[in-house]
Amino acid sequence: MLVPILKQGDYLIASVQSELSDEDLLKLRDELVKRVGELRSRGVIIDVTALYVMDSFATRTLRAIAHMIRLRGAETIIVGIQPEVAFTMVQLGLKLEGVMTALDLEEGLAYLQTLHTSKRR
Amino acid sequence: MNKEETKKPTPESSDALLRELVDHFREKREILRQQWVQLMMGKGLLAGLTQEEIETESITIYDTCIVCLETGEYEGAQAYATRMAERGVLRGMTTEQIIGGLLTLRDVYGRSLFERYQHDMERLSAALDIYEPVANKILSVVALAFVEEREKVVRQQQEAIRELSTPVLQFRDKLLILPIIGLIDSLRARQLTEQLLRAIRANRARVVVMDITGVPSVDSKVANHLVQTVDASRLMGATVVVTGVSPEIAQTLVTLGVDLSKMNTVGDLQGGIEVADQLLGYKVSRTEPPATGLITSKEKVP
Amino acid sequence: MADEVRVSINSEYDIVTARLKGRDLAAKLGFSSTELVVIATAISEIARNIVQYAKHGEISMSIIQQGSRSGIIITARDKGPGIPNINLAMQDGYSTGGGLGLGLPGAKRLMDEFEVTSKVGSGTTVTMKKWLR
């Protein structure tokens, strides 16, 4: 199951549509890290609303994606982690340290915008 | 015991004696039941019951006990006790009333057996051998039913208190307040976290002020739960500001070595709301200068 | 056991199948939405453990009844290399497979009961249970 990646202005939006296998996650990582440079994007939003399991592998991969994208000069925001999933992640000991999060796509976009306007000033 | 063993009644004769006992209690039903009710009244065990209730209940209990003796089965007594417990606990009947009542009935039955067999000690002893285990069993069935009912009510009340004690309040757009009052255990901490996370989604909250002024103490387990609540909220994009950490709790947390580096803490609820407003980009200011001075000066003019 | 579900684990794709089936079974029993995610995530962790260390194995899941309570029991079996030191493997952050080292200890935290038995050279069995509240 491939994750569609949309370009919207300065940002890239990857919205996960269904459960992902480990390989899908790694493909998403490679694709995002590649495109963020090609398209000169300043921010990436990964929407995980459709995921009901965020296990240690998924969390580790998402964190790696965020760190790699930062090295490529852009910010990553993970949006749409559901209450049940957030609850399970902290019980498991997963916190996504150093990665920005927002409630949903709308909030994520607003977050990126304030981030960039404040930087420009 | 040993003396009786040789003279122990054969199954046939014990069956016959059982029949005799059942018939005896049925025959004397009205006299014994009245005696029982009188005794209970004397002890003040019937407070709060109407005359009608006393009549119907005492008949039912009396007959149910005889059925237990006759059949050796206690389902009927159990069902009745559960029903009685449900009503009794709700109406505030005390355990003392219930158990006291049954002990009195036990005495009434026992005394009538003494009267009947007082000239035949052997037969009395055989009758008591049959009667006593049944009476004990009935008492334990009823006591258990009441204990279970009490426990059920306590559980329901605990559940209700839990729900009531952690309201998640929307204070402003995107700002929730979670005042926690009372002791927190693991179960409550878990429920509280689930409730807060759902409220964050429902209210699209960005900041949560968690006020623990009303929490008397925490242990390491609970402290970790609170840290988890903060972490989980952050995963959903909400920042948690913790307020009202008492000197005792502050000391506990530091002694336990709970990682507070990422916790956002402010002294009291008011300060927490101010910080939350800053985080949300609100500026709170008075729209007019204090009005009292103006009014008094105006009043003074004419 | 009428409701036993078995999923053989041979590749990382089977991890997704196992946790989906586990969630469906748990849903039948009436677990809350949070508990369904908790159970599915724990299954994901132990299934990945099989893929990572043993390559092949099987996960079986069924409903259990013990006295007045009921729950779900999940067993992961493999004939892989086994775990030389279970205490070490159950420690947070310990990993020989390049992971976060949260797999087994993490799954243990998510479930009510958790047990690992392993013999070097002949395989590992993980049994975990979650009771309905």
From TrEMBL, chain A:
Gene3D superfamilies: STAS domain. It comes from Candidatus Methanoperedens nitratireducens. The lineage of its organism: Archaea, Methanobacteriati, Methanobacteriota, Stenosarchaea group, Methanomicrobia. InterPro entries: Bact_StressResp_Reg, STAS_dom, STAS_dom_sf. This is Anti-anti-sigma regulatory factor (Antagonist of anti-sigma factor). Residues 1-112 form the STAS domain. It comes from the Archaea.
Automatic annotation (TrEMBL), chain B:
It comes from the Archaea. Coiled coil: none annotated. CDD domains: STAS_RsbR_RsbS_like (cd07041). InterPro entries: Bact_StressResp_Reg (IPR051932), STAS_dom (IPR002645), STAS_dom_sf (IPR036513). Residues 165-276 form the STAS domain. This is Anti-anti-sigma regulatory factor (Antagonist of anti-sigma factor). It comes from Candidatus Methanoperedens nitratireducens.
UniProtKB/TrEMBL annotation, chain C:
GO terms for molecular function: protein serine/threonine kinase activity. The keyword 4Fe-4S does not apply. InterPro entries: Anti-sigma-factor_SerPK (IPR050267), HATPase_C_sf (IPR036890), HATPase_dom (IPR003594). It comes from the Archaea. Pfam families: HATPase_c (PF02518). Keywords: Kinase, Serine/threonine-protein kinase, Transferase. Residues 34-133 form the Histidine kinase/HSP90-like ATPase domain. The keyword Aminoacyl-tRNA synthetase does not apply. PANTHER family: ANTI-SIGMA-F FACTOR RSBW, ANTI-SIGMA-F FACTOR RSBW-RELATED. This is Anti-sigma regulatory factor (Ser/Thr protein kinase). It comes from Candidatus Methanoperedens nitratireducens.
